[in-house]
Amino acid sequence: MKYSRQRELVLETVRSRPIHPTADDVFAILRKTEPNISLGTVYRNLNFLSDAGLIRKVLVPNASDRFDGTVVEHHHMLCTQCGEVFDLAHDLAEEFSQEILLKTGFEMNHCGLMLLGKCVSCREKECRPASTVKQPIE
Amino acid sequence: MKYSRQRELVLETVRSRPIHPTADDVFAILRKTEPNISLGTVYRNLNFLSDAGLIRKVLVPNASDRFDGTVVEHHHMLCTQCGEVFDLAHDLAEEFSQEILLKTGFEMNHCGLMLLGKCVSCREKECRPASTVKQPIE
DNA sequence: CTACCTGCAAAAGGTTTGCATAGCC
DNA sequence: GGCTATGCAAACCTTTTGCAGGTAG
Q1: What is the pLDDT of residues B14-47, one digit of tens each?
Q2: Which residues of B touch A134 (CB under 8 A)?
Q3: Which residue of B has its CA nearest to A114?
Q4: Which of A88, A110, B116, B131: CA 20 to 30 A from B123?
């Protein structure tokens, strides 16, 4: 792989942010210190780096793709209320993916699971009677 | 709801096709018999009908949204090889969604599960030694 | 009659690509 | 020096929207 300053910056930006930044986030962050970097270059490098396995592209339905510096196998949960993306540890889905394979023949990809739903803090913000709100177990 | 010929045709087209057609699929199908129908109208009606709960919009990462005439709760599996979308019965995911809620506090939406992976027929097409190919259990 | 719907075409949002120039090895 | 990356802008693809005219109730 050929070195370029921009590629290194893109990689470092994704790796150092746990927020699953979009291409546009990365672009905005880098623009601050690298005023000439172009959006095209950011996209090219994000795709290059995820093809090379150094980062991961997280496909988000109905929104911009996001990029993830964590390359160990894990899955994602998208809160359809606030738009945040959360990680889901692989072992929480392992049994499920085995069951799906056995029962349907469908073989889940590594990082192939996207859950749409409502995250803890969005659920807590809703004014439901406290008794019906299940507390998450961390 | 106000009647229109186009709306009825769109609804009927989605309901009668198990292929989870995209807006463009619906448009192409209807164009054959309704040469003046416009893509904008197809989109407007698909959105209207899914807002009204008569069909469902299936958000597909990295590809056009698809529409589903089956409105009972179920989930989807996208084959990242052939691009087909398959239904996944809700009861196969029920236990999993309970577990996720308890362990992470994330509350899955109805129809909120998208599995990316490889479908049975794509797996069978690959030239692996037969012994390593797990047969699906239907 | 009025509200809502249509067809058309333009706009919008996200992503990719062509081209000439610049930078790594 | 050659190959690849960059910046810029235009192109692309899917979806939405504004508008003027048409249709259901």
Answers
A1: 999 999 999 999 999 999 999 999 999 999 999 9
A2: 101-102, 105
A3: B114
A4: A88
